């Protein structure tokens, strides 16, 4: 489930899709002998924490079932690596958008909505505290950035495997993430 608002109306569905779905992927990777799993987390795990820039060290404070499911995925990935082997990297994406999103959807990301409102000459509706960002809009990641972020997660194979990596304009990943790789013997 890709929507925080929808997860509030269907928390069981959010868990089924996100947590159980991730467990199926991790288990399939273990059975297939996959060395590393790169998966999508979300900046929603940070909740309303005002800390900027966002780093791997910022506390997880989810405020929706969607965010809680993404935080649970990160915890499962850490445990899975310790117990079964595949190294895991979760990319915490911020405001992802792309050409096929429906800007009129109740669950649309903010960028397609901004475009739609601008084309209509309507004011842009901004939620949240822009003062803490110095008046700047929140982070956003275009569809092309998703691929670059995933490639970055895969390339980290030569570095210690991290459990998560923030990815967006408000994000600052550490150069060397904390290791959650199984010790090599």
Compact description:
This protein has 185 residues and is of the alpha/beta class.
How is the CATH topology of one domain named? Rossmann fold
pLDDT averaged over residues: 76
Cα end-to-end separation: 39 Å
Radius of gyration from CA coordinates: 17 Å
- The gross shape turns out to be elongated
Low-pLDDT parts are: 129-143, 157-163, 175-185
* Count of helical regions: 5
Query: What is the count of β-strands?
Result: 5
Biggest sheet strand order reads 1-2-5
Overall helicity = 25-40%
CATH architecture of one domain: 3-Layer(aba) Sandwich
Give the DSSP E fraction (strand runs of 2 or more residues).
5-15%
Give the H and E element order: HHEHEEHEHE
CATH top level of one domain?
Alpha Beta
The CATH superfamily of one domain bears the name: NAD(P)-binding Rossmann-like Domain
Oligomer state of the chains in this structure? single chain
Largest sheet: 3 strands, parallel
How does the helix and strand content classify structurally? alpha/beta
Describe this structure in words.
The protein has 185 residues and is an alpha/beta fold. The chain has a domain at 8-95 and 138-167: NAD(P)-binding Rossmann-like Domain (Rossmann fold, 3-Layer(aba) Sandwich). It is built from 5 helices and 5 strands; from the N terminus they run H-H-E-H-E-E-H-E-H-E. The protein has helices spanning 4-9, 11-32, 65-84, 110-120, 143-155, and strands at 36-42, 87-93, 96-97, 141-142, 164-167. The strands form 2 sheets. Strands 1-2-5 form a 3-stranded parallel beta sheet, with helices on both faces. Strand 1 (36-42), helix 3 and strand 2 (87-93) form a beta-alpha-beta unit. Helix 2 (11-32) runs parallel beside helix 3. The longest helix has 22 residues, at 11-32. The chain is elongated. Mean pLDDT is 76; it is low at 129-143, 157-163 and 175-185.
